[in-house]
Amino acid sequence: MAARPPLLQLSDISLTFGGDPVFSDLSLVVQPGDRVALVGRNGSGKSTLLKVMAGLVEADAGTRTVAPAASVGYMEQEPEMAGFATLGDFASSQLDPAEMYRVEMAGEGLKFDPARAVSTASGGERRRAALAKLMAEAPELMLLDEPTNHLDIEAIAWLEQTLKDTRTAYVLISHDRAFLRELTRATLWIDRGMVRRQEKGFTHFEEWRDKVWEDEDQSRHKLNRKIKSEARWAVEGISARRKRNQGRVRALQDLRAERSSQIKRQGAAAMALDAGPKSGKKVVEAIGISKAYGDKVILSNFSLKMQRGDRVALVGPNGVGKTTLLNMLLGTEAPDSGTISLGTNLMPAVFDQARAQLDPDMSLWDSLTGDPDMRVSGKADQILVRGSPRHVIGYLKEFLFDEAQARAPVRSLSGGEKARLLLAKLMARESNLLVLDEPTNDLDIETLDLLQELLDGYDGTIILVSHDRDFLDRVATTTIAMEGDGNATAYAGGWSDYRMQRLESGAPEAQSSVSAARSKPDVPAKKEVAPKISFTEKHRLAELPQVIAKLEAEIGKLEVLMADPELFTREPVKFRKATEALTTRQKALAAAEEEWLLLEEKVG
Questions:
Q1: Quick check: 195 and 23 in contact, CB under 8 A?
Q2: How many other C-beta atoms can be found within 10 angstroms of the C-beta atom of residue 143?
Q3: C-alpha distances out from residue 19 to 15, 246, 410, 412, 485, Å
Q4: Beta bridge pairs of residue 391
Q5: Does the pLDDT value for residue 63 go beyond 90?
Q6: What gap in Å lies between CA 190 and CA 38, rounded to an integer?
Q7: For residue 231, what is the DSSP state?
Q8: Higher pLDDT residue, 70 or 249?
């Protein structure tokens, strides 16, 4: 049997948008049945490449070839719905009337109402309609740009299973690690205008990326050594052999040109998150609270006790009442019955899913300097960052914004850039209670990793709302599952722990506190059962040796620095900072070693 032709082929594609090249001499092929993850940093060109593949953006050079009779479908991030009365009209616009059932099936799975008027639909509803349209049309190749954004966990599970079952090829952009791991069998990686392909799914991406970067660093190191050696020869010996060795001088110039032409990797965002003064031990206590809107019961006789340092996640379908519970726990909304008391000295900082803190018509500069909590009196170019004045450009650069973007309007930013700007505003404040409502939407994998590390080291309390299962497993120590009809139950650990406990015990009764959720309730038994280690604890136990090794290395460097007897006299500020850093890391090392011992005992 003859091999089937590629569904889509890009050959020698170049695209500039009038500035630096987005892509140069890019070529790639998508075969029938491909299941491809498209990954890369925010701003690397993932969405642009998907639009080139869809034929929506025309390249400056190169060719796009689609197999004869093959159809390519693209899920639009911001679909144009002018001329359509309802979301269903838009979603079925390319279908035969006899195939309307496809939209209804997709609408049920993705939880969108086809009868909803376009004029009253939210951005999330519009995106779900665009996804339903693509799923109903079932082209030979689907191009999916962040399809899980604005979906709850149940809808994500439906989409995941549907994509597993389909024979359609697809290329997928997503920040959701669990989704990518489950669905992809090949990976396209955009890095500095170059696209690499590996015939392995996203599970193997980070190992591959790190190996590529390691090889690149070694090659650069060898090149630098060769340039240094040749430059030394040029200085020391060229005068005696000037005519004979002009070729070697030209070779040195070529080496330097090669180094100059290399595109430097973008560093990770230099985000920092410091807790302010400690709150009281009790953060929130809810006793017997209930809430309903008409006939819809949100909570029924729910009790919760949160203490300083807890990491509590709220999960459940869209519309179940997570935001209502969040507002009640923050004291901004009152329960119908029961009591809620807040702890002392609370300093909350809120990351809202709707990005309501960002004015789309403001520039990034004004968004920061115009914030009353960040304004420095008499300094138009400075902002307060955790109590200390900083130049606004320098602070924006820490979140990977360049100087040219500082005066651009917020509306010109991508979704990931808006999320980073909101994180910049949030992290400038001192806080001891972080409230994160869907913080992972639109963030790239590297920024998500950094955010998770910052949350691990945050000396405060966290309340998290998320549909990202991997992120929940990494961050949450307690999961409150809101399952409808007023039922809310606290489980120890993250998402995987919640699912495991639910499968093991059926539908358990709601536990009355976070403290209760940390250990399973006593069950009468003839013999004592050893406690099980949770998924989150397993993950922590696996990473602690690296944490300990890193702290030991940092302590060693600081001790070498402070061994200089003249450091205190010569650089007193540096000496003081080094002393503080050494004390902090020694405490962190002792705590990490103690944690490792406790977890090892639990495993044993």
A1: yes
A2: 27
A3: 9, 37, 20, 16, 55
A4: 382
A5: yes
A6: 8
A7: H
A8: 70
